[in-house]
Amino acid sequence: MRMIAALSLVAMCGIQASPVRADWVPPFKGNDTGGIIAYELATTVDARQLAVDHCARYGKVGKFLAGGPHHGG
Question: Cα separation of 30 and 7, whole Å?
């Protein structure tokens, strides 16, 4: 019984110590139907080439719809 309690305590401490953030979004995210590139990333790298390379994985062609520093533009 003490062993189970000790393992449970170690597991709970490990879970609480892990750096998990629910508000973090990767700067480049996409799937087979669309995606988004963070404006900060787009100003430092070739965003169109990132999209072309990503779309090629799915056999698709990228269509660039918008570019702006604000959401919902």
Answer: 39
